[in-house]
Design brief:
The complex is a heterodimer of chains A (371) and B (283). With 371 residues, chain A is of the alpha+beta class. Chain A has ten helices and 21 strands. The two termini of chain A are 36 Å apart. In chain B, helix 8 packs across helix 9. With 283 residues, chain B is mainly alpha-helical. Chain B contains 13 helices and no strands. The chains are: A alpha+beta (371), B mainly alpha (283). At the A-B interface, strand 6 and helix 2 of A face helix 8 and helix 9 of B.
Chain lengths: 371, 283
């Protein structure tokens, strides 16, 4: 078990492509850190640099107290789980799990003990004599996890380990990996592009874009207080609605207006930072669940009402998504309660915004003003 | 519906007829060779196709009448050269292919292209140069020289094996690296066991080369009859003064050298076919 630190880490490829820029993070012992971002954001490259599979161009990486910049992967005391499992096809499950231990000249009895123990944890004891091709996707992923567990490494690195599984299995394995983390009490660095995985598994999440860290925070803060429009739009499904609006301050009253619609914001927005934007355009972020067509709420909040035509209604069972056009031009998505919602396609629905959950961003820098 | 079925039957029949004719055409020379090897009448040309009488003498004489043509010795020479060439070439081809497929170094691309260009020149272009080099090293007319010549440039035949290695996911190497393996372990314990078809293919092609080469062995061995290989030795039976007496013996000798190669092929045929396609299609 160990902490991991990355200090001013850069990765530049020949030809000038910069994959990772000025990456700084202190990962504490036993943390479950998630690196998340769209394709090409540098998350896998960062993980591979920690593993030692990719050289770093600049900066320092520490595992525990040890600077590992020039340390071979095998001497970093890490284990890695790959997206495509990377099981050795010609070896049995037992041999796959034992391979790393054999190379480290661990005594045979000890290898057997460790492999059996890991197999028991992952419930794959009955598969030890099989070859990988005789296993299902989920079983293969368990073996890949088992191969990492038996090594008892300081740090687990996981590179999109669930993305090759079908949706149902993914949910199941997600829970299992979380349980495994609680049981093993070890540091895990986990790369994914799936924000659900990120939100449900991580103790802290690193959101990345174009090689830069956008925000490092716990899942709740990341959702409730995104630092910029990218994080706000990336985390959350369906994504946050963004509107360009004019901010007006009258005394202590702050309001935003767009397309002849005026929304008065509650008192909490009456701060010096917000007031500084008086008369300027800002980006307003509204999460789909902050929009509702619940009649009682709408009637009680006349100051935040939005008239909207309903384009599409998606009933998902537990919730309904309304795809609406506000004031004839702005498309938005609302997540509403199926039991209360009466909206139908073609309706002009009365929606209201929960004023306390509005996010304001600077239009130029796209950084948060208040959320 | 009916007409399309009739058409497919007609097409299939045509294909089978063509294939059967081609099969027969390929088999005729082999059948003829085997028949002649058992013919009792001497001479290269007879006005009839099927022999009038049969004998095993042609085969026994190959091993008993060794004064002029030392067939057993030549057979052993070829076998020795083939075995060593096969071992050295296989290791060299596979290691070169692995290096070019897996490792990244500065001159990699240049070497790949150089290999490709050099491969376009026929090997015997270097014959005279090789002869003088071997002579300067005091190695001419020896079996060692033959082994060196046959296996020396084998690394250049890396294309098919490299293509095969390229299809093995890189993540396996990386998993092994994290597990603690070095390049040596990865090559022997991970990549090679997964490359059986291409290993077999490489073994077969490098084993066959010495049995069929005529040019190099004739330049290198000159008049050292004792170190002749089968191809050069058997050819001596076809000279104007020997052909009448030894033609049937020549045929028997040709049948016999097909035996080790055929056995190897039959055993490894399954892998050989998948080896070629596995390496070529995805490479």
């Amino acid at each position: 078990m160990a902490s991991v630190s990355l200090k001013n880490v850069y990765k530049r490829y020949e030809g000038g492509v910069v994959a990772v820029s000025d990456f700084n993070i202190d990962i504490e012992d036993k943390e479950f850190i998630i690196l998340v971002g769209p394709s090409g954001c540098g998350k896998s490259t960062t993980l591979r640099m920690i593993a030692g599979l990719e050289e770093i161009t600049e900066g320092e990486i520490y595992i525990g107290e040890k600077l590992v910049n020039d340390v071979q992967p095998k001497d970093r005391d890490i284990a890695m789980v790959f997206q495509n499992y990377a099981l050795y096809p010609h070896m049995t499950v037992f041999d796959n799990m034992a391979f790393g231990l054999k190379l480290r000249k661990v005594p045979k009895d000890e290898i057997k003990r460790r492999v059996t123990e890991a197999a028991k944890i992952l419930e794959i004891e009955h598969l030890l004599d099989r070859k990988p091709k005789a296993l299902s996707g989920g079983q293969r992923q368990r073996v890949a996890l088992g191969r990492a567990i038996v090594r008892d490494p300081k740090v687990f690195l996981m590179d999109e380990p669930l993305s090759n599984l079908d949706a149902k299995l993914r949910v199941q394995m997600r829970v299992e990996i979380t349980k495994l983390h609680q049981r093993l009490q070890t540091t895990i660095i986990y790369v994914t592009h799936d924000q659900t995985e990120a939100m449900t598994m991580g103790t802290r999440i690193v959101v990345m874009k174009d090689g830069f860290i956008q925000q490092i925070d716990n899942p709740t803060n990341l959702y409730l207080h995104p630092q910029n429009t990218f994080v706000a739009g990336f985390i959350g499904m369906p994504p946050m609605n963004f509107i360009n609006a004019l901010l007006t301050v009258k005394g202590d009253d702050v309001s935003i207006s767009f397309n002849d619609i005026n929304i008065a914001l509650p008192k909490k927005y009456s701060t010096p930072e917000v007031k500084a934007y008086d008369g300027k355009e800002v980006i307003v972020g509204i999460r789909p669940e902050a929009l509702t067509d619940d009649v009682r709420f709408v009637e009680n909040h006349p100051q935040t009402q939005l008239p909207a035509s309903v384009d599409v209604v998606e009933m998902l069972g537990a919730e309904t998504y309304l795809y609406v056009t506000v004031a004839g031009v702005t498309s938005m998505i609302a997540r509403v309660e199926p039991t209360v919602s009466n909206s139908k396609v073609g309706d002009i629905a009365k929606l209201a915004v929960d004023g306390n959950r509005v996010h304001l961003f600077d239009k130029e820098t796209e950084l948060v003003i208040l959320s | 519906m009916k007409s399309s079925r009739a058409r497919s039957i007609a097409a299939n029949s045509a294909i089978y007829v063509i294939l059967s004719v081609m099969g027969i055409l390929w088999l005729i020379p082999i059948a003829w060779l085997v028949l002649i090897s058992f013919r009792a009448e001497p001479g290269a040309w007879t006005p009839y196709i099927l022999p009038q009488s049969y004998t095993l003498d042609n085969y026994t004489r190959l091993f008993t009448d060794t004064q002029l043509f030392n067939y057993p010795r030549w057979f052993m020479n070829t076998l020795i050269v083939a075995i060593f060439t096969c071992l050295i070439s296989t290791v060299m081809v596979l290691m070169t292919s692995y290096t070019l497929s897996r490792l990244r170094f500065k001159s990699r691309k240049g070497l790949l292209n150089l290999g490709l260009i050099l491969g376009m020149f026929p090997g015997f272009m270097s014959m005279i140069a090789i002869y003088y080099i071997l002579k300067a090293m005091g190695l001419s007319q020896s079996l060692l020289a033959l082994i060196m010549v046959y296996s020396g440039a084998s690394g250049l035949g890396y294309f098919i094996a490299k293509g095969f290695f390229d299809t093995i996911p890189k993540a396996l190497d990386e998993a092994a690296i994290v597990d603690g393996a070095n390049q040596n372990t990865i090559f022997w314990q991970i990549i090679l066991p997964l490359s059986k078809p291409i290993v077999i293919y490489t073994v077969l092609t490098s084993f066959m080369a010495p049995w069929v080469d005529f040019i190099f062995v004739s330049v290198i061995m000159k008049d050292n009859y004792n170190n002749y290989t089968i191809a050069l030795g058997l050819y001596q039976m076809l000279t104007r003064e020997n052909i009448y007496r030894y033609f049937t013996q020549f045929c028997a000798g040709a049948v016999l050298i097909a035996i080790p190669i055929t056995i190897l092929f039959v055993i490894m045929q399954k892998y050989y076919v998948s080896g070629v396609t596995g390496g070529a299609v995805k490479g």
